[in-house]
Each structure stands twice: as structure tokens, then as C-alpha cells.
Amino acid sequence: MNDVLDVALRLIVVFAVFLVLPLVIGQTEHKVMAHMQGRLGPMYAGGFHGWAQLVADGVKFAQKEDVVPAGADRRIFQLAPAVALLPYLLVLVAIPVGPSEGAVGQVIDAGLFFVLAVMGVGVLGSVMAGWASANKFSLLGGLRTAAQLLAYELPMLLAAASVAMAAGTVSLPGIVGAFEWWWLPWQITGALVFFTAGLAELQRPPFDMPVADSEIIFGAYTEYTGLRFALFLLAEYAGIVVLCALTTVLFLGGWHGPFGGGWGWTLLKTAVLAFVVIWLRVSYPRLREDQLQKLAWTVLIPLALAQIALTGIVKVAIQ
């Protein structure tokens, strides 16, 4: 009975984090972009520093009419937001925040395989939305999403494989437990490849070609309104949390810190990486589609393969 209560409590905590952290990231993005771009609008709602901006956005989405196009495939159209969002909840269950067993929703022996496989499913929500909307711009956005997934899934997997080779395990707590600070300089290439490919899979700027508003209105999400559109936004911010947390666990030592260790280090590193994601959106223009594909196939994949070769050499040298 105690084991059941323990698992239930941990799952409740994960669910609460899933509901809170993406909203915090969304609120932070409003404020950081407003400061970087000199925009005053997001600083008014609610008074001090625009603290109620997130509440105002939520009320706005709830009040909007839920519209389904007449020619759309209704079931797939309505299912797509859930397919985009729920995989990130499952990934959070497997990410360890601290060294204790209670600091992870569920310990999975092959946790790295699990989280990478499930993250790939989340991208399919955009493909489903584009195909089911009965809109040529939405379909084009969905096709771009599929092309982006095919291009960036491989370097992401290869980069994760290099750190799994270094740790000798595919268990996420095992990878963090095996982490040594001298890994940082020779795994930095893998970390950059993993983080860049993850941004592309999330369709975050400068890799937001599937939602290029200047070309295809808003891509796969053009026909979505109200709370269904809000679920896609929540999935994007949940994806940021998952990507930053995974980068922290795989390449930055997770709960290890220069002064002791604990779950606070995991959250701090995740927050810093989330700020980097927001900063990149403000600072860099959108890539062209050919540049997007060229970066994946001619830069990231060779770098990831070189990182695997370097990891093998280092492992042999140590042995």
C-alpha cells in the first residue's frame, strides 16, 4: 500500500510540475522579450511588472470560439493538440531531478531510449494538425514539420548516444551518477548538437519554418482557435522544459554542482538554458528551408559522428 501511495504522490508532483513550469516559461518569455525589444505592452496587465499577463492570455483563449473547419477531418483535428502535448508529460516522468529515488517520477532502465522515442511522437501532433485542417497552408506547415523531424532526429540521437557511451548506461540516473566534470570540454560538441537539434524539433526560432507567419500564415496551426490553440502553445513551452532538463541531465551533470549537489542545481541549469532558448528567439532571424536542411545534414550529423568517434577514443584511452 505504501508503494502505491509513493508512486501516486510522485506522479501527482510530476503532473503539477507539468502544469506549472511551462506556464512560468511562457510568462518569462513575455517579460524577457519585452525587455530585449523595448515593448511596454506586456508590462501593464495587473500592475507591477505586468504580473497578470499570463492570466489575461488564459482568459482570452478561453473566451474565443472553438471552430472546426467544415472540410476538416474532425477526429484527427481535435486529437492533434493532445498528441502534441501529452508526450512531454510522459517524458517528465522519467527525468531525474535529484539523486534520491523519490526525485524521479519513475525509474526506467532504458530511460534515454524512452524519452527520445516519446519526444518524437510529440512532433506528430503538428503533422496531424496540418493534414487534418483542409487548408493548403496548414498542409504545407505539416510537411515542413515532417521534413524537419526527419532531418534533426538523427543528430539528436547520435549526440545522446555519445554521452551514453561515456557513461556506459542508458539509464538517466545512471548517466548523471557517472558524470565527471572533465566531461564538459570533450562532450561540449555533443551538447551543442543535441540542444540545436532539440530546438529544431520544437520548431523554435530560428528553426520555425513550419510556422512561418510571413509565408504560410501560421503553418499547421492556422485553423486552430481558443483552447485548442492554447494547448499547442503549452506543448511548445512544455517541450522547452523537457529539452532544457534533458540537456542538463545528459551533458551538464544534472544535480551535481560546484558546491554540493541537489535538485536545486537541476532546476537552476534548466532555467538558464530556457533563458538561452528565449534569447535565441529574440536575437536570430528565421532560417530558409534550404539552410535548415543543410545545417542538419552537412554540419550537425558530421559533428555528432565525430563526437561519437572522440568518445570511443577517450574510452579506449582510459581503459
UniProtKB/TrEMBL annotation:
Instruction: Kindly list the places in or outside the cell where this protein is found, as annotated in its UniProt entry.
Output: Cell membrane; Membrane
The species this protein belongs to is Streptomyces bambusae
- List UniProt keywords, sorted A-Z: Cell membrane, Membrane, NAD, Quinone, Translocase, Transmembrane, Transmembrane helix, Ubiquinone
Read off the InterPro entries from this record: NADH_UbQ_OxRdtase_su1/FPO (IPR001694)
Q: Where are the transmembrane segments?
A: 7-26, 79-98, 110-133, 154-175, 229-251, 263-283, 295-318
How is the quaternary structure described?
NDH-1 is composed of 14 different subunits. Subunits NuoA, H, J, K, L, M, N constitute the membrane sector of the complex.
Q: What is this protein called?
A: NADH-quinone oxidoreductase subunit H
Primary site of residence? membrane
Keyword flag Transmembrane: yes
Bilayer topology reads: Multi-pass membrane protein
Return the EC number: 7.1.1.-
